[in-house]
Amino acid sequence: xxxxxxxxxxxxxxxxxxxxxxxxxxxxxxxxxxxxxxxxxxxxxxxxxxxxxxxxxxxxxxxxxxxxxxxxxxxxxxxxxxxxxxxxxxxxxxxxxxxxxxxxxxxxxxxxxxxxxx
Amino acid sequence: xxxxxxxxxxxxxxxxxxxxxxxxxxxxxxxxxxxxxxxxxxxxxxxxxxxxxxxxxxxxxxxxxxxxxxxxxxxxxxxxxxxxxxxxxxxxxxxxxxxxxxxxxxxxxxxxxxxxx
Lengths: 118, 117
Hints:
The complex is a heterodimer of chains A (118) and B (117).
Chain A: E1 4-7, E2 10-13, E3 19-25, E4 29-38, E5 45-51, E6 57-58, E7 67-73, E8 76-81, E9 90-99, E10 107-109, E11 113-117
Parallel strand pairs in A: 2-11
Antiparallel strand pairs in A: 1-3, 3-8, 4-5, 4-9, 5-6, 7-8, 9-10, 9-11
Chain B: E1 3-5, E2 10-14, E3 19-21, E4 24-26, E5 33-39, E6 46-52, E7 60-61, E8 64-69, E9 74-79, E10 88-97, E11 103-107, E12 111-116
Parallel strand pairs in B: 2-12
Antiparallel strand pairs in B: 1-4, 3-9, 5-6, 5-10, 7-8, 8-9, 10-11, 10-12
């Protein structure tokens, strides 16, 4: 089936530094990548939608200069949290939509990244 | 406004019994899709079942079935013969049309299911 590989699974960084999270579609082409954020015991909140080769569309209230999304190829999308602060600590998860994405009607999730900013 | 509502923050069920997790939705689009996902403590999102708005029959996948009542805008998940491994957070989600004509998923607040031996 379709697989999205997300790395790193866990990262701890110092306040003020930047962190890059990668999502790779392993056996299909991800024409669209969704990036979600999930605080403990809360729901998944969509941050942005990116289509290969074009600028990401951010949800209301999400700072595009802080959460940089790049979707340069059909198999790779990255989320960079710039100048991270403790309040950015959260679980980030990507979801890919693309052709031949298996039986789950197109949405394949990565395994998530738990970011802790100290 | 497009919205997914899960009114049960937590549920208990005895092992081997059936349990129903509630989900209601709101949308004005005639075409939409409804999903259920399971999220164990490890955080991954596991797809369980899908129901399209035009599907005539309720979706079933093994021990999972979706009780789709279109007029009431509800899409409840039924898990039969609960197992200890079913203990997890369960999210209902709806596919909606986002910016740039891209379909995106919006999620409910989730229900934490605990299966008791």
